[in-house]
Design a protein that fits this description.
Radius of gyration: 35 Å
Oligomer: single chain
Strand content: 5-15%
Largest sheet: 3 strands, antiparallel
Structural class: mainly alpha
Number of helices: 19
Order of helices and strands: EHEHEEHHHHEEHEEHEHHHHHEHHHHHHE
Shape: flat
């Protein structure tokens, strides 16, 4: 950012290999800073990067840094492969219930850690013998003081991962597992094979028997913890900050197929440390509330233009300048190839020139051609990455334009892109007003069908409504009961139009429980749609409104 603002003239490094350890990384930053008028200076190397000689030296250092990096990587990977093939531990922390023996020697192996095994077997017993689900088992372990390896309380997700690990269920791990997942998954080649060596199965002593492991796996499948956050897109994950200081994450409730956000401080283990009491937030409601503010910000705020500048950080450098750089290197390569071709003919004609001199000249020309080809390859790689970044930037800016104009509704994935661009941060203020667990069928019907909610019924229109009621129910006393039905009808319409909760219904409509009972009875008997259609003939209807289950929100944007 400082370089783009013109605040940087020179970047000083100890050695040019500090710029990047791979060719693409090295030239990406060299050229990106060059496009901004920023020079690199090495404390230990006297290289003028503005001259052809300096460029060759710079390229040599880039190649040397990448060669050294590849050598270190290959040696490390080969050593880990040899350890795994001989039954040793290839690296990283040992699995749950095990410890390393022989650390610092040429071959470290896994052995059972008797202290940790007590926690493992208790956790297995809670799930398998006491038929507890994962959340209950995690709480029980915490209550017994049987904490994780790091001394922290258990969470359901953490315990579930440990109990599902192949080290516990199968007494083995697969080093360079092509089917692995997550941040540390094995890198694969184009054919799907591990990039740095073959897969190796490393066995070690079992903690529980094979039969008990199979029963544990079945028990967890039956009543265990399930991670359902993948059931949808959660554009606000990590962007809502609870009062306890933890961030909210997306979650899914299988019982009613509901997406929601929960504070990370409220996990059954962390809650005791953070004393988190932050409420769960209904995903649809909080996403809608935040998005409304985003649209208002984009349309009305004077800060919007600055906040929505194309995200240049997707990939550093100027794409136009890089295209010209590629073209210049292509011309330079053609000249060097032409010079090398002409030199072959000229040197062959010069019979009096020493052969050693001829060979030295051709070696230098060939090296110049190879260097130019290598530099062109890197320049094209950087250009391809910058082009992908530019395309993504343009896509995001198109989404911003759509959000401003409202020309179409964005998907959750698309709204997430805009929210990330703006650097939105959300902090809930106050509490969420809870609804009952049963959803209002009348509200859902209006939302599903799009039928408008009529205005309240005046005295002048009530006789016609009474006639409709009498024709439907065929019971005069129902229409003229002790309870003022018109007042109750208007109470129903008031709630549907305002979105208030039943117990917030103003007293002028009578006891809210009786009004609610009237609504549900009429809807169940099929009278409500007829009544609404009749009342809507007078016009003035509005869309049904459901109270958002979100507290007041403090929404901020990236400066």
């Amino acid at each position: 950012m400082c370089a783009r603002q013109g605040l940087v003239d020179v970047i000083v490094v100890h050695n040019f290999d500090r710029v990047g350890r791979t060719g693409q990384a090295f030239w990406t930053w060299i050229w990106a800073m060059e496009d901004l008028g920023v020079d690199f200076v090495s404390v230990t190397q006297d290289i003028d990067t503005t001259t052809p000689s300096g460029r060759r030296q710079l390229q040599f250092h880039a190649m040397a840094a990448e060669a050294e990096w590849n050598l270190v990587r290959d040696r490390t990977q080969s050593g880990r492969q040899r350890k795994a093939l001989t039954g040793g531990w290839p690296g990283g922390p040992p699995p749950w219930g095990y410890a390393l023996e022989g650390i610092g020697r040429r071959r470290s192996v896994l052995v059972v850690d008797e202290t940790e095994v007590a926690v493992v077997r208790k956790a297995v017993s809670l799930v398998l013998d006491e038929d507890k689900n994962i959340s209950a088992a995690a709480r029980e372990l915490n209550a017994l003081g049987l904490m994780t390896r790091s001394g922290r309380p258990w969470t359901a997700a953490n315990l579930h991962r440990r109990l599902k690990s192949p080290s516990l269920l199968r007494g083995e791990i697969v080093f360079r597992n092509p089917e692995g997942s997550g941040r540390n998954r094995t890198r694969l080649d184009e054919e799907g094979h591990p990039l740095h060596g073959n897969s190796v199965t490393v066995p070690f002593p079992r903690i529980i028997s094979a039969d008990r492991a199979g029963a544990l796996d079945d028990a967890m499948a039956r009543n265990g913890h399930h991670a359902h956050a993948v059931a949808g897109v959660y554009p606000l994950t990590g962007r809502i900050v609870g009062r306890c200081g933890h961030h909210y994450v997306g979650a899914y409730r299988n019982a009613d197929a509901t997406r929601y956000y929960r504070c990370g401080g409220g996990n059954n283990g962390k809650r005791r440390e953070s004393r988190c009491r932050d409420p769960h937030l209904a995903a649809l409601d909080v996403e809608a509330a935040v998005w409304r503010e985003v649209v208002v910000f984009l349309v009305e705020s004077t800060q919007a233009e600055q906040a929505t500048v194309a995200p240049a950080g997707l990939f550093p450098g100027d794409v136009g300048k890089q295209r010209q750089r590629v073209a210049d290197i292509e011309v330079d390569l053609q000249e060097k190839e032409g010079a090398a071709g002409r030199a072959v003919v000229d040197l062959a004609r010069n019979a009096g020139l020493d052969q050693a001199v001829k060979d030295a000249a051709m070696r230098q020309l060939d090296e110049d051609v190879r260097n130019a080809r290598g530099l062109l390859m890197r320049a094209r790689e950087v250009l391809a990455a910058q082009t992908r970044g530019e395309e993504k930037s343009e896509k995001i800016m198109d989404l911003v334009a759509i959000a401003r104009t409202g020309s179409r509704e964005l998907t959750l994935t698309e709204t997430g892109e805009v929210i990330r661009l703006l650097g939105v941060r959300v902090r809930p203020l106050g509490e969420v007003r809870k609804r009952s667990g049963v959803k209002c069928k009348v509200t859902e019907w209006h939302e599903r069908t799009g039928v408008l909610v009529p205005e309240e019924v005046p005295d002048s229109r009530w006789p016609a409504v009474e006639e409709l009621m009498t024709s439907f129910f065929r019971r005069r006393q129902f229409a003229r009961g002790v309870v003022d039905i018109r007042t109750q009808v208007n109470g129903i319409l008031h709630r549907l139009r305002t979105g208030c909760l039943w117990d917030e219904l103003p007293e002028r409509y009578g006891a809210w429980a009786l009004v609610k009972d009237r609504q549900n009875t009429w809807f169940k008997k099929g009278f409500w749609p007829l009544l609404v259609d009749h009342l809507n003939l007078a016009g003035g209807g509005t869309r049904v409104r459901r109270e958002r289950q979100v507290p007041p929100l403090d929404i901020t944007w990236r400066n």
